[in-house]
Amino acid sequence: MKKVLVATEKPFAPAAVEQIKMVVDEAGYEFELLEKYAEHADLVNAVKTADAVIVRSDKVTEDVIAGTDTMKIVVRAGAGYDNVDLAAATAKGVVVMNTPGQNSNAVAELALGMMISLARNGYNGKAGTELRGKNIGIHAFGNVGRYVSQIAKGFGMNVYAFDPFVSAETIKEAGVTPVDTADELYSTCQYISLHIPANDKTKKSIGKEILGKMPKGAVLVNTARKEVINEEELLEFMAERSDFGYISDIAPDCAAEIAEKFDGRYFFTPKKMGAQTAEANINAGVAAAEQIRDFFEKGDTSCQVNK
Ligand code: 3PG
Q1: CB of 307 within 8 A of CB of 41?
Q2: Is the model's pTM score more than 0.85?
Q3: What value, to the nearest 5°, has the Cα angle with vertex 150 and ends 78 and 11?
Q4: What distance in angstroms lies between residue 97's CA and the mean position of ligand 1's atoms?
Q5: Is 159 helix (H, G, I), strand (E, B) or coil?
Q6: What are 76-87's pLDDT values in tens digits?
């Protein structure tokens, strides 16, 4: 009997676990759950006898992959798969998938929620600002970026987008104004919402130079990955530009320094919360279980990211 392991340091909502288990049971597989584990070694051990593994931001590193001869597939229930060592998986013939789009609305809602919180000074009673009429730039027009653009339009914002991998036509069809370069996006928009993945090209790519192009009252909203920010330059920039605010879903490494020096100009979630809704957990978790079933039963590899 094949065993499907759900290994999530940050647990799914109970309703999602229930529905994942239903898919696994109906497929005739064994279900195992490892939640809130304390040590990386717990993940290494649990994976040893699993045929398929569902994870979130859990670190599926080389040692995890090397430690199992049974695992055929790992599905990251979510969008970004920078937590999975793709090279190690590929070398061992392990299929890696994500579940694109399944948790995107939740992340987009948090982005707008955090923007309002900062614009209203954390609801401290002082007069804040409104989002209506402001320009927002979507940096990478994937699933989350699209949802952010829809919600931002509902708030009466002017929405722009830049994505080197999405045509201007596609962006226009979504009712968003495309721009040709990242520089143009940053110089046009008071708000920038980041949706770029973390990879060798993008890590530390957002620094002083590009942020310096933003107009007065600039706010950077990061629901992507903290690694895409050049934090040394972010600190320098925040010191130079007293009008600039930084919002991030998961605190940067320099959070304490920002908190000490730039009161009222930041908002950070204590733990990555973007995808942490019952709906997103159910959508992504169930999709992951179904993808595993379809991989074993039909050889379906459509969501594979290490082809
Ligand atoms: C994603 O890439 O899907 C999001 O960052 C969500 O990550 P999480 O599943 O760890 O909340």
Answers
A1: no
A2: yes
A3: 25
A4: 14
A5: strand
A6: 999 999 999 999
